[in-house]
What we know:
With about 475 residues, the protein is of the alpha/beta class. The chain has an 8-stranded antiparallel sheet. A hairpin with a 4-residue loop joins β10 (about 200-205) and β11 (about 210). It has 13 helices and 22 strands. It folds into 2 domains: about 5-155, 2-Layer Sandwich (Alpha-D-Glucose-1,6-Bisphosphate, Chain A, domain 4); about 160-445, Rossmann fold, CATH 3.40.50.720. α5 (about 235-260) runs parallel beside α6 and α9 runs parallel beside α13 (about 450-455). It is globular and about 65 Å long.
Amino acid sequence: MGNRLLVYQSRVRAPAAAVFQWHARQGAFQRLSPPWKDVELVADSGGIAPGSRKVVSMSVGPLRQRWVAEHREWVPGREFSDVQVEGPFALWEHRHLFEPDGNDSCILEDRVEYKLPLGSVGDWVAGRLVDRQLSALFAYRHRVTCGDLALHRRYSRLAPQRVLVSGASGLVGSTLTHFLRSGGHEVTRLVRVRRPPEEKAVYWNSITKELHAPHLEGHNAVVHLAGESIALRRWNETRKARIHDSRVEGTLLLCSALSKLARPPRVLISASAIGYYGSREDQLLDEDSAAGKTFLAAVSQAWEEAARTAERAGIRVVLLRTGVVLSPSGGALAKILLPFRWGAGGVAGPGNQFMSWISLDDLLGAILHCLATEDIRGPVNAVAPTPVRNRDFTRVLGTVLRRPALLPAPAKVLKLALGELADELLLASLRVDPGRLRSTGYEFLYPEVESALRHMLGKEDVSSCEVRRSRGAPGV
């Protein structure tokens, strides 16, 4: 059996040099890593120039696999290549090509020649499966490349920023860091574990009130995402106090430090949540709707009040009320994927409760939109424009995964297992409208839940990806 050759092309609305430069920046590799795969960048000698290497740890079935890729030939602005020097393939040679297509567009082409281990046996056992997986991978990579570059070009009026990000080890914070860096911005992480100086991180501790304000000087913007996870385990009074204090006390500490700076940042985007509204059945909620009366509503109100203290220093404050973030890498979707993949998924409770959601890529876009749009301040609903009922979300997820979704989780069972957490997260009905994002011109990449799920789970159409025998290989 011969080698396989995968060819995937897309037209990107950006000059070839700009697309090449995006690939060369820190953060691009992580942006191109598929969220449905457990991929960790262990070491990176930097860039894509010849001789640079990336060491990756990835899941291959139930095992971990080390993959070392070395960059070889390159033509700045037009192409670069990498080869596997250690990893799961018997051969892997990957060329990235950038062909100009007019003044403001280019054709992005990935050409991968590869061979499976164990010769014809490996080809017979796993060939078609690997072909499908690689086709899904490169379809995803091209969508992310096109989407990210479109967002960065749309907000090109925003000069390169120095952005401080808290909660940078979480799902949203870590992805945002890669997104901003690959777009040409500089990111400093606000972390709770001391890091060496070269990691561009500032240590803080909201419990002991440790945060050295001078280390925050020089940042144009702050994106504050830190807070104790609300869905790790069943709530008790101690747990609820931690959820509250991690948000409110941490935000007060940060805003106090920012207010003392000689040159405070121009904008603070502080996380909040649509839990601010409580559970409101079918009522359509916008940023002017009243707060609810639940525990999460009270936490969100106190959280936002703490963030508003930064306004005293002349800082523009945006309160990002985020819905359910769709990503298989973490959050609610990650928790329900396993039973759904085994055909054990189903409606939660009555199924008629509204779920207001947002794709992870659109949340990144919304944050960039708020950074760049000076007219935005106060609450912003970070949700897609099409909230869905739980029964409809369940049906769509089952369709995307090609699995039945026939095993309901009755409300009584959920309450027995999770208590108050079930009432506020799984059974609450929140039909939220992103009015402020839409009125200020944000264009959603994934406004419909099915397209968002297909993108994040690698289930999009890959008919434009061609896999064939490589020219000149035996058996052609």
